[in-house]
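P.,

For your records, the input lines for the assembly:
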Amino acid sequence: MFTLLKRIIGLGWQNLVRDGGIAVANIFIMMIPIFLVSSIFLLKDVSRYMIDALQAKADISVYFNENTNEDDILRIKQAIVAIPQVNEVKYVSKDQALADFTERHKDSATLMESLQQVNGNPFLASLNITAKGMSEYDQVAQFLNQDQYKAMVNKVNYNEKKSVIEKIFFLTAGASKAGLILAGILGFVSILVTFNTIRMAIINRKKEIAIQRLVGASRVFIRGQFFVEGLIFGLLAAIFCFLITAGVCWYANSSLEALMPGLSLWNNLMASVGTMFLLQFATGTVLGIISSMIATTRYLKA
Amino acid sequence: MIRFNDITKIYQAKAAGHKRVVALDGVSFGVEKGEFVSVVGRSGAGKTTLFKLLLMEEKPTTGSVLYKDQNIYKFKSKHINNLRRSIGAVFQDYKLLPNMTVTENIAYVMKVIGATDMEIARDVPRILEIVELEERGQNFPEELSGGECQRAAIARALIHRPEVVLADEPTGNLDPYHTLDILKLLLKINEMGTTVILASHNREIINKLKKRVVTLDKGKIIRDEARGRFSL
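Structure tokens returned:
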């Protein structure tokens, strides 16, 4: 058994080395679906970041009357935070609102002048709320509409922002779906291309398979060689892909971080380096082995 | 040992305008263990088809082939492998594995039958010496002449001491010197008990052998003589 295994591995490796050109072509073709899988794996962080950034723009604000006590506002804040699916509730005091306004419009003389004329702080304390979906915003709006809060709440801008929030959620959900569908189509096409390339390479060797059968080689003996070849193709393609992926992440990291603060492709890759390599290795070897097995089956019947 | 029973093999027309070909038409004959049989006939007489049927490369349209009293077309995969391993075949087109050197081609058969590395290392150089290819062991088939390929194919057919040797035009590309040597080799292994079936259209060789001759013409046996001569 050990001798048989040793011979199968030896012959598989020998075939691969002797057919170097075809082997290189196969490895390159196999890199396409592996790259695709790796990209989906890495870009999910980027797309999550972008979707989160977009969804963060969908928020509602509740403004409190002048006489509302800060402790009451913070109590309401705690109650809203407790609603499941609420992402974040940020309290903006009257003073903070004024400071933010002044900082934002310090270059506008007209606005600054108007502010001075008002003589005092015209801003109200507020809570900025972001949630994970439309239904959660409804829930928050209903919560604030309770009688016990009516005396404290001056205004909830939910109805004004409702259509914008709906559009944002529609867009982000659509982008996620479109991404998944696109990845699925590309994945399917690249798998077909890989299968076909390996099948063509094996068709070129059908005469060789027939000769091996004629001298009495068993199916296992012949198929084993192609199995080993497929495994090595997958392994080499996975290693090359991994090195290229790591290189791209390292190179693009600083530029991407400048565009998307807080997102580090390199750190994300390093955090899941084992999973990434396993994913690439599994994609490569499974594709290599299955396509070799399917292609040889046809010529091993006799 | 081997029995062809009323074998007919028809190749159907593969496209419009093509004619179907009757390669063998009701062929029946047997070969005893240790016998040396020459199958002669013109090109297209059906000699190669007969060999293809015994190696199960093709199936007959009607009839059966018995090997050691068993219908080979009822064999399961494992038995087919065993049948092929017990036959050493020299093919007209050599059928050497293109990505392997001469040594590797010969060793491949030994690997298939499960010979040890030691046996391979011992026997392969020996057979290369017998067929005078010791200098060509590391060459690939495409680097060899037709005659050298033929000798490599003969070496591969004989290396595992098969019970039966099928030789389809084994001297077709050889010079007279090597032809005589290969013939002597086939006779020698036959004397040692191996059954040899030789297909040839070389009149000189067949007449020199003074062995049984089965003559085929247009897919039919027209003569079967114990100490026959090539007479067509």
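Two observations worth noting. The interface with chain A takes residues 55-57, 77-78, 81-85, 89, 91, 95-100, 104, 108-109, 111-114, 116-117, 156 of chain B (CB under 8 Å). Chain B has a mean pLDDT of 90.

Regards
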